[in-house]
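Q: A reviewer asked whether we had any structural model of the full assembly, not just the individual parts. We don't, so I'm hoping you can provide one. Inputs are below.
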Amino acid sequence: MSSKGVPLFPEAASTFASNVDSLYLFIVAVSVFFGVAVIIAMVAFGIIFKQKKPGEVGERIEGNLALELLWSIIPTIISMVMFGWGAQAFFEMRVPPAETMTVYAVGKQWMWKFQHPEGNREINELHVPVGKAVKVLITSEDVLHSLYFPSFRTKMDAIPGRYTQLWFEATKTGTFHIFCTEYCGTNHSGMIGSVVVMEPMEYQTWLAGGSTGGTLAERGEKLFSELACSTCHMDNGQGRGPSLVNIVGATAELADGTTVVRDENYLRESIINSQAKILKGYQPLMPAFQGLINEENLVALIEYVKTKSPAAKATPPPAAAPAATTDGMQTPAPTGGKN
Amino acid sequence: MLDTLKLPEHHYLNDGYGLKSWLLTKDHKRIAMMYLISISIMFALGGFFAAGVRLELMTPQGDLFLADTYNKFFTMHGVVMVFFFLIPSTPAVLGNFLIPPMIGAKDLAFPRINLLSLYIFWLGAAFFFYALFSGGVDTGWTFYTPFSSFSSNTNVIPVALGVFISGFSSILTGLNFIVTIHRMRAPGLTWFKLPLFVWAHYATSLIQVLGTPVVAITIIMVFVERAFGFGIFDPVRGGDPVLFQHLFWFYSHPAVYIMIVPALGVMSELISTFTRKTIFGYSFVAFSSLAIAVFGFIVWAHHMFVAGISPYSALVFSFLSFSVAIPSAVKVFNWTATLWKGSISFEPPMLYAYGFMGLFLVGGLTGLFLATLGTDIHLHDTYFVVAHFHYIMVGGAIMGYIGGIHFWWPKMTGRMYSEFGARMSAILVFVGFNLTFFPQFILGYMGMPRRYHAYPDEFQVLNIMSSAGAGVLGIGYLLPVIYLTYSLTRGKAAGPNPWGASGLEWQTQSPPVTANFTEPPVVPAEPYEYTPHVAREANLV
Amino acid sequence: MSNAVAHADAHGHAVHHPQLQHHFDTMQQQKEASTFGMWLFLLTEVLFFGGIFFAYLLYRMWYFDAFAEASRDLDLMLGGFNTVVLIGSSLTMAFAVRSAQTGSSSGTVRWLILTMILGAVFLGVKVVEYSHKFEVGHVPGPNFHSTSPWAAQEQIFYSLYFTMTGLHAVHMIVGIVILAIITRMAAQGKFNESYHTPVEMTGLYWHFVDLVWIYLFPLLYLVERHN
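A: Here is a predicted structure for the entire assembly that you could use as a starting point for your response.
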């Protein structure tokens, strides 16, 4: 397996990769231009104005305001262009389209565990279909890691305690590198793998062949009853806890008056640290499951709860809540929409 | 017209002999020389770790060291080079030695605090050596949590304490410089007559004083987590590992300006002297040092674009990061303009200045790729970043420091050194440096991550080039040790002003007397005054 | 204005004040440099404590309930008493400086000793508070013990509590040591109307340490106490 592309660049295999490459080349061009200009001036002046006889001094020139303004303003303008283009490329890379398939990635010393909603689990390998937007929800079981796809030109840190996300749409089939790019200890450089991009038909075949234990949501449903969540969280809202129907992506009011968007991070936190965000009108009765559920099962539970909000995927809410919530730990609402 | 100059009879080096006269000295010049020896030792140690890293990276497999050993090597390379070499370097050696004579003073404002600062440095280094000899540390010089607080099995605490302690050395130096520059200038020496070296150190001192305490408290927080099991960054208890990064980079970004701004000050002195001209745009260059110090404090999260910060905050920090590039560009343009209609010669310090300009240019321009969000996502934590910061830290800061050493060596020791050796060294360093680090830009874009013990085969050719360059670079750094040491006993006497430079420090003998001046120096009407008389004087050497 | 004692002309230059260090030109310059230096140092201390204050403010925002509950378990009486003691010690310190400025060595010594006593009282009370916390298992880490639903985040509160007050206590200890040295110098008659800078600088430092506590006390002890 390899990702050998042109020697200077890895293969450009995602929808936004070529934009990143063009931006890169633009900055190279600007840098080469100014770099060469200054170096030529330095060399030329060094030759032309060489000291001709001992005791000769240079001409006393204090400065020139026009020149100072010129070489302050022009770099500023060029910087703004770089910033603008960079910001555009960045938002392209960080805001997934409305319709994406989701994959969960859990980094752990020293491997990547991927889970598909259909139930397939992979280690250090990720199969995806070409031409489809894929959103990866990432977390870590221990220390910081970072999920990096050089051929897609994107990466995002894996942070223990919360979900982060990245998205991509592969444009070529093939096998490309996955690297961990946040130092995580002994086998950091061994925490590598491949992303295998397949034609949609092949991908379906692969999917069908691999899952044991049902889809993520099915596993989640089993856990939901095993862990007695269903005792309090009844669909009809009669239980001691709120109903979980049609809640994902919606904004809700908390007991302390603030509001929160109920996304994957909120769901995860509410399971692990259930006292953190009590919904208005409810008592702090839910036990905290910190240390009792591992990341993979958390993901299964969340996927199950998401099946109770079928509309959530199609209509992403605006990420208006951040100002109102007091939880800085939330990533921008990962259920799509403006990030 | 003198045939041979002789060393003056009384100077600071022979003003008292014996260990006590050095270890209990209040003389800023002796303290500077002790710093010179101390940080040279640390530089050699850091270089040793670098050699280990580059040797391992010649092959794709991790076959030279165990993974843990390699991780310790790159960690300790970073810790030693950043905290025990670069941060002190120019300020503790050249700043300490030169600021008082440059402003016409007898010493810094607080000579005993200066000595204390040296002792604190030694104490911090001692903690580091203790950690080294009891197994080393493998967290990376950045100590990210939770790895450093909960996961690493190595001697994090002694290294953290060593860095914490050495931070006070830095704070006290900065404090000393600020008060000295404000309060001890000779009569008539107004701010805008000061050498730009002094402006640069003033700006650096502001950063040292304001930024270092924040990393100090951050280290304390990691220390209590690790030593007592407290929870501040622990995600299990609701702590945020990203908070560590904010606190850490709030210092560590300004820290990189502590490392480069003094070298920028050296550059102004070198360019002015060897063009025999005042620096073009003096006030712009002076203010640009202050601007870098100020802007340097508001860009820290550009190290965290992929750390899970909100995209809006990323936008803000990206925008602000361009602002800090502009003053640096202004300096480069002003130095280039200074060359115009100068009377230029290429003594070794000027070779270092030219080398600095070229390398600092590349380093600064490559920063643009990282400030730009669209490219940073791809390049973060790859070898592109490694190349970028080495161009600035090594190609810039170290070349500036060594160029400064070559420039002021005659003043500090009274001796001239082998010009041939010095030219060889400058060229070897320049060539070796580019060979070492330029391939790393390409490796970075190709996706090779940092801190990797082993890597995919396709990265090998560029890695071999890089390691070969490191060998050349090492020889380039070894040469000055030889010819500079040799010059101490065999070098020609330098006289007060071998380069025909301006600046009050050149009005006194070489080496200076303990009180710096035997008679009050003459404050010039303008900074960087060159007259044919002064220049002619120089060529008597 | 000079009580400058004639200084033995061993270095062969004009008479100057015995406390004038040789790299300074005048006592005025020396005093200004010392004062400037001390203020700068206090600025570094603001940044030092500021880092952990920032972490505190962030977590308090996120985990207010946990912080409120943990704060209620701190002893308000002892904390309040300590606040009064420390403010009192700043008062005695100010009087010590005044005595030095008016050339009263015995007054200076008396007020400095009083300041040290009050400082020691403060530290004694903190020892009492810390040991109580140790007994009830509120020291974060493996021995932490709480039945509150917010137990995990309470550990963050206590981690910050111990670190912040611990660092403050270290500063107080250093301050008391410095006070002891200055007291000895005062007892030896080293200070007078024209030279008492070390007393003033110590005063600045001591007032700063007091000021840090004045921020720490409400932030740590008074979270949602009105309920």
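A: Points you may want to mention in the reply: The mean pLDDT of chain C is 91. Chain C touches chain B at residues 21-24, 29, 32-33, 36-37, 40-41, 43-45, 47-52, 54-55, 58-59, 62-63, 66, 139-142, 152-153, 155-156, 158-160, 162-163, 167 (CB under 8 Å).
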